[in-house]
Amino acid sequence: MEHIILSILLLRSMTIYEIRSYIQKNLSTICSDSLGSMQSAIKKLLEKGYICVNEVSEKGMIKKAYSITDSGVEFYKTIAGSPMNIQKIKNMELGKFFFLGMAPKENRVAFVEDYIGNLRNELTSLEQIKTMVAFNRDAIIQNSTQAISQNKTALRNLRQVSQEEKLENTVGNIYDYQMYMLEYGMERIKSDISFFEKVLADECKKSEEKTHL
Q1: For the chain, which terminal residue's Cβ has fewer other Cβ atoms within 10 angstroms, N or C?
Q2: pLDDT tens string 127-156
Q3: What phi and psi, each to the nearest 5 degrees, are found at residue 14?
């Protein structure tokens, strides 16, 4: 979570609710949007001096906006592109599946059918996003490049981290890897659907074998 928040704040200052909105919109399939998790990560980042907080007034309301510091940018440069830790890519919800054999047959079947349905819905949603984003690739890169070029802080941060001379190249790289992430999510879901359909078929096979006994 700390790495993700730093990545987001490289682009601009945000409140915790804006960070949460960004995660919900762009990272919902891989990252929790729990306020508790974000608050804990923000506290650690503040303690390390990687981010700072400022109070801003918006429509008569005082809000806390978080920004990445120079030391935060320097730290980020050391972790940008670092290998993923496979031990951290875990889904605690799969513990329910691990112990599903304790449940009655009708519960097991309903569990698997419901999960397959949810996976198919998620896949449809991601396919729609991919179609829309791929169709508008050039416009997205152009608009993002223009927006970042007008934000001196984001422009400086991205240049330091990416070490690219042209901002458009950096934005293009960001776009490409976000698309890779989208494609990865789709392939993972397809694989999960195939696996859980096999589990469902095995359950049906068990019932048939019991009928013939």
Answers
A1: C
A2: 998 998 888 899 999 999 999 999 888 899
A3: -145, 155
Evaluate if pTM is beyond 0.85. no
CA–CA gap between residue 145 and residue 155 (Å, rounded): 9
Q: Provide the residue type at 197 as one letter.
A: E
Long-range contacts of the stretch 134-142 (C-beta < 8 A, 24+): 134/179, 137/175, 140/175, 141/168, 141/171, 141/172, 141/175
Tokens encoding 38: 């974000």
Distance CA 63, CA 52 (A): 14
Q: For 148-189, how does the pLDDT look when each residue is reduced to its tens digit (9 = 90+)?
A: 999 888 899 999 999 998 999 999 999 999 999 999 989 999
Neighbours of 45 (CB within 10 A): 24
> Tokens at residue 59, please?
């429509």
CA neighbours within 13 Å on the CB side: how many for 54? 9
DSSP assignment of 71-94 equals HHHHHHHHHTTPPP-GGG---TTH
Contacts of 126 (CB under 8 A, 6+ apart): 29, 182, 185, 186, 189
Cα 1 vs. chain centroid, distance in angstroms?
A: 10
Cβ-Cβ contacts under 8 Å for 80 (sequence gap 6 or more)? 161
